[in-house]
Amino acid sequence: MTMRAFITGISGPDLTDAERAFIREFRPWGFILFKRNVQSPAQVTALVQELRNCAGRADAPVLIDQEGGRVQRLGPPHWPAYPAGVVFDRLYDLDSSAGLRAGWLSARLIADDLHKLGITVDCLPLADVPIAGADAVIGDRAYGTTPAKVAAIARAVTEGLEQGGVLPVLKHIPGHGRATADTHFRLPTVDTPEAELDATDFAAFKPLADLPMAMTAHVVFSAIDAAHPATTSATMIQRVIRERIGFQGLLMSDDVSMNALAGSLAERTRAIVAAGCDMVLHCNGNLDEMQAVAAETPELAGQALIRADRALAARKAPTSFDRGAARAELDALINRLGPASA
């Protein structure tokens, strides 16, 4: 079955008739869920199944941003709260093995939640390396401020997801940590010299280049391409992401509707595809916008199709898992940080 190279959100907890028709006509590769789509476990499970039924593909990927901390689409009372990335960072400073173990446990527990719902992809881990003075959009989501620590914790998180039957998405490649603006609202420009970027921001992604999927950063790196954010820069995608970092998996854009990108939705979509992204991501569930993006998105073919198929084939069956023991162990590790860890 042919598919178009985009991932779409939907407007609410149930599909509308217009959304069903849209999915059948434009055949998105996958779907992404947000808090507006979530009410209860039974409702999410049914929604995920209906999305796949409409797509006509039992393996159609369903994504979510379930990091923990302030980026958690599934939450109480139906799902537990999970720690932000900074908790693993602080534990790592006390005891590196404890930080890595906590990252793995949190991700394995999240994967257990997602697997039960039929959600197959989590937009995690982050390999962004924040600096002092950067916008707080990354902030406490990060695993540290040094590339080696960030990469090590990101690997532990990746393994937790994978062992729970969930595919990871590495973000925000090639780095969002220096951005001085939230890309939901405006476009940030990073003026750091290329050699420094290579030793810091890019360095955190290199050990993770084998991950099956990654999401781009809507950030301009002026030393390499002063005219375009990484998402729409052929230079950044080919020279930095594909060659220098070595990432050969499925590359998706961050949300095409963010204000960091210029032009109409159609123009943005064309620019994303022309730059070398394999997949366009549209999140807000606005049907008019969804149609504008879909109309400009090509059929999934060539190397993009090969990467998409390879990514889906990388998903593993969950390993055996004692959820109660894992949660107790995670809580005990977090408690080592004291009351402020919450």
From TrEMBL:
GO molecular function, one term: beta-N-acetylhexosaminidase activity
Enzyme class: hydrolase
Keywords: Glycosidase, Hydrolase
Alphabetical list of SUPFAM superfamilies matching this protein: (Trans)glycosidases (SSF51445)
Occurrences of domain Glycoside hydrolase family 3 N-terminal (ranges): 29-295
BP GO annotations: carbohydrate metabolic process; peptidoglycan turnover
EC number(s) given by UniProt: 3.2.1.52
Keyword Hydrolase: yes
Database matches in Pfam families: Glyco_hydro_3
Protein name: beta-N-acetylhexosaminidase
Organism encoding this protein: Bradyrhizobium oligotrophicum S58
